[in-house]
Design goal:
Elements: E1 26-27, H1 38-49, E2 53-54, H2 60-70, H3 75-89, H4 92-99, H5 102-107, H6 119-124, H7 128-134, H8 141-159, H9 162-171, H10 174-182, H11 189-199, H12 210-218, H13 228-238, H14 244-257, E3 284-285, E4 290-291
Antiparallel strand pairs: 1-2, 3-4
Helix pairs in contact: 1-14, 2-3, 2-8, 2-11, 7-8, 8-9, 10-11
The structure holds iron/sulfur cluster (SF4).
Iron/sulfur cluster binds next to loops.
Pfam families: EndIII_4Fe-2S, HhH-GPD
InterPro entries: DNA_glycosylase, Endonuclease3_FeS-loop_motif, HhH-GPD_domain, HhH_base_excis_C
Protein name: HhH-GPD family protein
Length: about 300
Amino acid sequence: MSDESEQPADPEPDVNISGGTTGGDVATSFDPATAETRAERVVDRLGERYWQKTYGGQDAFTCLVRTILSQNTSDKASQPAHDALIERYGHSSSRADETGASAEAETGPTPANDGEADLAVALAHAEQSQLAETISSAGLYNQKSEMLIGAAEWVCDEFGSAAEFDRFVTDEAPDTVRETLLDVRGVGPKTADCVLLFAGGRGGVFPVDTHVHRIYRRMGIAPAEADHEEVRAVLEAEVPAAKCGFGHTATIQFGRECCTARKPACLEDPEACPMADICDQVGVYPETGEVVDPADAPT
Ligand code: SF4
């Protein structure tokens, strides 16, 4: 009989953009021998070093909230803000405390779900200064609290509830979902793509954050001058759809541990990086110890 304690722990950190242990990810595996592009080879190596997964199944509005909270800060700082927000606004009783009876009177009843409030309805009626205080650990809390209330109001106006918004994200064509989300204040391409990936479970979506943007230009896989959208286009064209999700999360881990912004591992030891043989080191100069953004590297 197998003992659960003997199962290997999930290698992805609990505190991560994917939602950690409640993120709805599923471990999977791929054959690295079949990689057809350099970008795919990089993702395969990251998969061997960190994890190989598919994502999807997160509640779409909760995912939107998590991604807005994570903007311009680390997951370590945004996770406590997320937890505090859910604690305060994510339960029926707390919703009644925070918003009063008027919330339901204006928007109609929310689906019964074991004491959980409809988070969009609760946040649409949240008091801004109280929400700002609740999420203060995430930084930029005034701005983010306004964005969250605006996004919640938008979800309530357009869809009626977080549950209906979730259906939209899961069922509609990805391009339609993306374009619709991009019209919401505070939602940029990375946030829209994270919702498509972690909630919609859409393959072929490779969100580009600051680590992904830096690393694939450094490697010479994307042009040095490429903006976030251009890097995304390269990766989504060159990495098979099923590998894009963990390609995103594992690249972030690689950017934190190895190819960091100021001190990539190869600066001191060329052997220290598992990508050394397939990396162009654009803007990285081990001879002098200098590092510049690839866009500023002389051509
Ligand atoms: S060789 Fe250097 S620049 Fe290239 S991926 Fe590795 S650490 Fe980053």
